[in-house]
Amino acid sequence: MAPQNSAAIQARHQICLERASPLPIGTRLCFRCDRFKDLSEFRRSERGLFGLSARCKKCEKDCGKDWAKRNPEIYRAGERKQKRRYYEKMRRERPDELRRRAREQKRKRKGKLREYELKNRDRVYADKRQRRKTDEWQFKSKARTALWTAIGRGHLARAKSLACHDCGKPAQHYDHYLGYAREHWLDVQPVCTSCHGQRAVDRKELVRIKD
Q1: What is the count of structural domains for the chain?
Q2: Is residue 129 part of a domain?
Q3: Among 8, 71, 100, 167, which residue is least crowded by beta carbons within 10 Å?
Q4: Which of 46, 63, 80 is the last residue of a domain?
Q5: Alpha helix locations (H) across the chain?
Q6: Residue 44 phi/psi, 5° resolution?
Q7: pTM for the full model?
Q8: pLDDT of residue 100
Q9: Are residues 141 and 198 in the same domain?
Q10: Which one has a higher pLDDT value, 131 or 143?
């Protein structure tokens, strides 16, 4: 049997004494790290003492990280759902703020991309030259040239003057939804930027499933 005066038992006994003693004014005991902390270190909770949670914010954050590591799929699904709800609420209540943030993020991405290109000029140009030699690049280039020619001659309206085929918002681009083969150069649909990106993602997923 372990001795009664071991360090572990003494430490636990001291914690019990602290819990039994009156709380210092303006503090609360965290039941995870066993420390008295300022009330501002705890989130609000109707069921907790003083209307505060039993664990401090740092311990709750650590618990959340541990749970996310044990349940990665559930965590990612919940994160996507929460993000979707947030953007839906922003579109309804603060669309101007959402557009401002999107422009700011786009500006930052462009700045980082430009900085990377300047630091790795030779590598970037080598990658571009290599991509332009592929058959896929040649097909896309010819299809886009044919599309721009048709728009310039008045055979097709500009995409920005039309509504998105998927969501009905103002369109920004044309999508070659049937591919870039010669017979489908002018088989296009007007789409907005977000729908165009989503279509590209869906096509990649479809290719991955087929493979």
Answers
A1: 3
A2: no
A3: 8
A4: 63
A5: 7-20, 57-70, 72-93, 95-119, 121-132, 135-152, 193-210
A6: -75, 140
A7: 0.43
A8: 92
A9: yes
A10: 143
